[in-house]
Specification:
This protein has 211 residues and is an all-alpha fold. 54% of the residues lie in helices and 0% in strands. The radius of gyration is 67 Å and the shape is rod-shaped.
Length: 211
Amino acid sequence: MPGITRRSAVVATTVALASSVLVVAPIASAQVTGADGRPAQAQRPSHTPRPTESAAPPARPAGMAELPVTLESGDRDVELQEAEVKEAAVREAVAAEASARRAAAARARRSAAPAPAPSPRQLAEGMVPAGQFHCFDEVITHESGWDVTAVNPGSGAYGLGQALPGDKMASAGADWRGSASVQIRWVLGYMDSSYGSPCGAWDFWQAHSWY
């Protein structure tokens, strides 16, 4: 009958579907076994990058030199200032040393150089009595200006006291022409013998412009 045949077909289809589910489920859950019957381990890739590994930096192109590490602007300024300070200190030390050498050389020259000879007037201060020196000084200043080699062009009088003739001073010393001490000794003796003292000679000179 047509109705029975349709139901039979539906039942047969349902049974067939149920059988296929039962067959497929074991296949999906089946594990691959090895030759010894144990479950086979899944193979890992030959190399797996580790999280800690990093890629190598890119290679520098051929012919490009490695640039030196440059200092920051502030560091360069500090180094320049330090160099300037050191250079200034060296210059000061060199200048101080040169100044010390010059001072030492000057002291050595002063100590090695002979003391300057006393002037004729200074010699007379030590030879003429203190109370009479100002008179002696006045006479000699007016006669010769304390010039040991002074010569009167008119008379030929010579020396500090204008001895006439000049060679009469040889009685006080052989070097009467150039020795101030010889001439002073002679003039002082002449004043004492002729006027009693240098001040007596100065009084006479003021009255006559000669002595």
